[in-house]
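Memo to structure team: turn this sequence into structure tokens by end of day. - J.P.
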Amino acid sequence: MRTVATIGYEGATVQGFLDALRDEGVDLLVDVRAVASSRRPGFSKSRLAANLGEAGIEYLHLRALGTPADGRAAARAGRHDEMRAIFREQLATLEARDALGTVAELVRAGRRVCLLCFEADPAHCHRTIVAQALGERLPVDVTDLRPGRDEG
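Reply from structure team:
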């Protein structure tokens, strides 16, 4: 059985984030944010891809596996059940199913994949739903990584 990791960068340091990925043996980070920008230095798409590249980890952004704007607003407001319902509708789209198929093919090919989103707690993040949907396509063990956090 293959292992798929998930990670959230909320509160993480770039170094702690990269260390967590390396420690798990990740060779491909799949960004499942609808919008791959961040106010946190080092976590916007271009800088993140560069940081990962320096660490020997490839980067792939699959926007179709991101949460739509209304789902992100629900998550920010703490309405996690609403966010999950909105995201499940997104996951049912052809584009999202195709993107999930891409991830499944990469995992089948032996890639050590990690799904990235913002939230530190995987229970409050749609990446958990993505990992569960992936598990319906092929047998996977899911590991939730906890990167090093900012102090204070």
